Amino acid sequence: MADLLIDFITSLDGYGAAEGWPGFWGMESPEYLGWLGEQPEHTHLMGANTYRLMSGFAASGEPGMDPMAAMRKIVFSSTLTEPLSWDNTTLVSTDAVEAVRELKATETTPLATLGSVSLCRSLLTAGLVDRFRVVVFPVITGKTGQERIYDSYPDVGLELTESRTFEGGLQLLEYVPRILDGPPSPQG
């Protein structure tokens, strides 16, 4: 059975991107990029918008994208058509939750999302996520921020399992998620 990791990079205020800013907000450090390159083999899961963005970064030679070329990537979309231009990418146009449920049951290689806010929200709500990791970049993009990550997410309790600080102040936080029925009751 394959483990599923939701993996986000965000600004401190929870945006996944910002208008006019480069990838990684221009703050990727050699230490962080090295860590990215050391990650164990896994299959990337993403939606159409993330595919368009990331394949564009890869095509333009954006730092840190080379290792992803050889990785297996699955794109969930009803709007894209084959053939896809990014090597090692498979298009799935059926229900993403059911497809990922099947992948978790039959695959042995770990699965990890790449961006894809609505896909991640659906997988988390369906109870398919084993780990939740976020790397927080030390920037607030309130004026130019795009794609607020956690809007419309369910309430989720997070148990911290790992943390790390990279040069430049980037913070890695990894959790085991648990969907909550609602806010906790006040202790009396």
What is shown here, in short?
The protein has 188 residues and is α/β, with parallel strands linked by helices.
Describe the structure.
This protein has 188 residues and is α/β, with parallel strands linked by helices. The chain has a single domain (8-179), classed as Dihydrofolate Reductase, subunit A (3-Layer(aba) Sandwich), CATH 3.40.430. Helix content is 24%, strand content 31%. The chain has an 8-stranded mixed beta sheet. Strand 9 and strand 10 form a beta hairpin. The model has no long low-confidence stretch (mean pLDDT 91).
- What is the CA-CA span between the terminal residues? 42 Å
Per CATH, the superfamily is Dihydrofolate Reductase, subunit A
Can you tell me the CATH class? Alpha Beta
CATH architecture annotation name: 3-Layer(aba) Sandwich
Task: Output the number of helix runs.
Answer: 5
- What portion of the residues fall into strands of 2 or more residues? 25-35%
User: What is the C-alpha radius of gyration, as a whole number of Å?
Assistant: 17 Å
Number of domains: 1
GO molecular function, one term: 5-amino-6-(5-phosphoribosylamino)uracil reductase activity
Organism: Luteipulveratus mongoliensis
GO biological process, one term: riboflavin biosynthetic process
InterPro entries: DHFR-like_dom_sf (IPR024072), RibDG_C (IPR002734), Riboflavin_Biosynth_HTPR (IPR050765)
